[in-house]
Amino acid sequence: MGSLKKIIKAEFITGASDVKSIPRESLPEVAFAGRSNVGKSSLINRLLGRKRLAITSSKPGRTRQINFFNINDMLLAVDLPGYGYAKVSRSERRKWGELVSSYMRDRGVLAAVVVIIDLRREPNEHDLSLMDMLDDLGIPPIVALTKMDKVKRGQRAKRRAAIARALDMTPGDLILFSAVTGEGKDDLWKAIRSRVDELSGRG
User: Which distant-in-sequence residues (6+ apart) come within 8 Å of 10 by Cβ?
Assistant: First the structure.
């Protein structure tokens, strides 16, 4: 999908705070998911070459709806609410979970979900639950390990291997990414384009 190699258009379309607000299926979609404050918005902005397309915040739990972005009229990037933030009420967390699962379930245009995990942290129960849900739904995850710039080069392979073991994956399938330096951006785009092409082939 060469039209995604250069991002000319990246525009916010709509935000869905409930199931009824989720837009009809149109273009292929790639969703981005991760625990609160994992650097999801920063990753999206770096990936799309925009500074404030997805709003970043030092306060966890900032994203409270599903946000849809049109990329080159070829793809929708979908920013999912961060999960696992303890200071959000249980009912609010349940509402977010129901919204996200309702979005993912039977979403025929969903090519993949980019699962974002901090390279410095072990996957927690919320990360593992998300991976299990994606497996149950038959949605292929792309795992991106963020904040690699905060880990010494000599420790990165060790950290990636540890996370891969926790996820029962191969280390090479996990993409190292830095929103600060842009490292890993090309690898992540390559994985996304591959999944979008696969979806087109299935269609």
Answer: 48, 49, 50, 53, 69, 70, 71, 72, 77
Length reported for the chain: 203
Q: How many structural domains does the chain have?
A: 1
- For 194, phi and psi rounded to 5 degrees? -60, -45
In a domain, residue 1? The reply is no
CA separation for the pair 152, 105 (Å, rounded): 39
- Alpha-carbon distance of 41 to 181, in angstroms, equals 15
Range of the domain at 141: 9-202
Q: What is the pLDDT of residues 103-154, one digit of tens each?
A: 999 899 999 999 999 999 999 998 999 999 999 999 989 999 999 999 999 9
* Of 116, 138, 125, 102, nearest in space to 94 by CA: 102
Is residue 29 within 8 A of residue 75, CB to CB? The reply is yes
Distance from C-alpha of 182 to C-alpha of 178, rounded to nearest angstrom? 5
Record the pTM.
0.90
User: Within a domain: residue 40?
Assistant: yes
Sheet of 75-79: strand order equals: 10-16, 66-71, 75-79, 29-34, 110-118, 141-146, 174-176
